[in-house]
# Entry
Amino acid sequence: MKYGLIPLCSTLALLAGMAHADMNFNRIASFETTLNMAEGEDTNRETSAEIIAATDDGMTLVYTDSPLGVVGLIDITDPRAPKALGNVALDGEPTAVAIHGKTAFIGVNTSESYTAPSGHLAVMNIATKEITAKCDLGGQPDSVAAAKDGSLVSIAIENERDEDLGDGRTGQMPAGHLVQFDVTNGAIACDGRRDVVLTGLAEVSPEDPEPEFVDINGLGETVITLQENNHMVVVSRSGEIVSHFSAGAVDLTDIDVEDERAALTFTESQMGRKREPDAVKWIDDTHFAIANEGDMDGGSRGWTIFNKDGTVVYEAGNTFEHAVVQIGHYPDKRSDSKGVEPESIETATFNGTPMVFVGAERASTVGVYDVSTPSAPVLKQLLPSGIGPEGYVSIPDRNLLVSANEVDLIEDGGVRAHVMIFEYQNAPAMYPTLTSAGADELIGWGAISGMVAGEGKAIYAVNDSFYGFQPTIFTIDASQTPARITDAMTVTRKGRPAQKLDMEGITTDGKGGFWIASEGRTDRLVPHAIYHVNAKGEIKDEIALPAELLAVEKRFGFEGITRVGDTLWMAVQREWKDDPKNHVKLVSYNIETGDWGAVHYPKAEPAQGWVGLSEIVAHGDNFYVIERDNQIGSNVVTKKVYSIPAADMKPAKLGGTLPVVSKTEVRDLIPDLKSYGGYVVDKVEGLAVTSDGEMFVSTDNDGVDDSSGETFFWSIGVVK
# Structure
């Protein structure tokens, strides 16, 4: 029998926001690329989803998968239930795909070396999966674009440089160029190839243009980014250069430029930062948008709208990155490079509103902008796109947006590459579920771990050791949707941010301060300990483990702390040396007497990997714990909340036989996590119960390191 919760609302309704529904994009499905592998094929091989396109009827997706040397096909007749259509092998590495009707034009790289680049354009009948033509391109293709009327295909021939040669700069031959083909009823005459020379245009390495991305407007004009050359070129349908100009530079302030990977500090500046754009897409026949990823000398962390005459119409500056910071997706390990790295751009008109979609590769998110006024775009949403978004395709006739996410973590036992589908709905935005937007200052956050409820709907949360130089207690207002981080207080020792902490649990002390549980890592001199912190964040007392526990401890220690009167209870994540199989300790410490004790908690047998505890909270006549496995995506089995009768929590002395508590399932969290439309994340780590019995759960996003950056913070109802 499951212990009951009184639901406040469905997970997707997002509380009172339902009453103020507006048009929003929400993720409705995801597709793991391994599903396209043939029966018997080794799914332990790396696979990927990179550039993606859709048939004109919007029912079929085609994406490039360079590790496998294939394009993958997906049936999205029902976008909530995408179906595998299999892979089509190519004679080389696919780099890009464009579609008109049901014909796919695929750039295929066959280069033997950087100095001998080669490739061809493969023309594929999507219905039959037959390659109907192969046209030599005279170099290494990168991006492919098809005109909306199907009459023209343009291909950027990058002939990329060897970054390990010399100083890794441009000036390496042969030079790149643009290729154009006229198309008649989906057919290309290979001998009609037009090569457009792009040398002698850019200020940076004019002898060695490296075209990166192309797009074609309604006039048949092709816009091209020369990324390393920091230059833009517009070419006519017949191959004549209409205009060209530098992509320019941006002055950036209030950014993080240090790769400390342990603190979020947005106090530095970079003046004259070259844009070095990657993707480009036309908004209309006059304006186009670029994603300023950077490469050789730049990367301005944002995006820009240009008039095709070279006039800057809009510059995002630091605003896009700051918005990403506020939803917890900022990748601190990329601070010294290019920050969130906007790489992808898609444009479309949905319900009469022209939109630009800006994909941040390292932040694994996409910004949705209303560009009804190109000089004043409005950020409407930030969507969780999956790890490493490389390409997007919009299908406005079906109210769909699709992302292709290239990162495959098979070697690390993590989630596989995915394609994710979003629908434009008359419904509230499901994401983000937690944000620091609206705070008095820019608050960066991530790796949320333990939680505890304060007064009303206030919840306090801590970050874990990912931010080792910035241990922080966050104040969350859970009465709002999304929940709001309103304050961040650094935990200090002798006036400086406290070191050697891995904060995995927090509870109040009843006097305005907190008790914090820190998970130890003795091989790195991080002690298993509990800390008393005052209302200013200052550590006032440190309590180390007694000898009886130090003798049996292992790496995976305290994950959660709660207080009942003078007694603190800590959940140990996994078995220590003296624990029976599938039993972990709940450890007690009496603040007044200094006595230690413990009980045993019986956890699930792991299907694979391990199962452990992530949190403990006392409320009323019960204690509540999160029990989870370390699995992700389609491998998940255990992500649950259990209750333990308080009457069972009678600790025995350490070193002897410990009593075993009973448990009752309260909530299986896997359906909740699936309701967000992506893969199921592994780290469900935070639990808090407010004074009126409402239970909130949160996940840890690992500081956006080999993670999609997604944090889910939600209510699962009121405890009966």
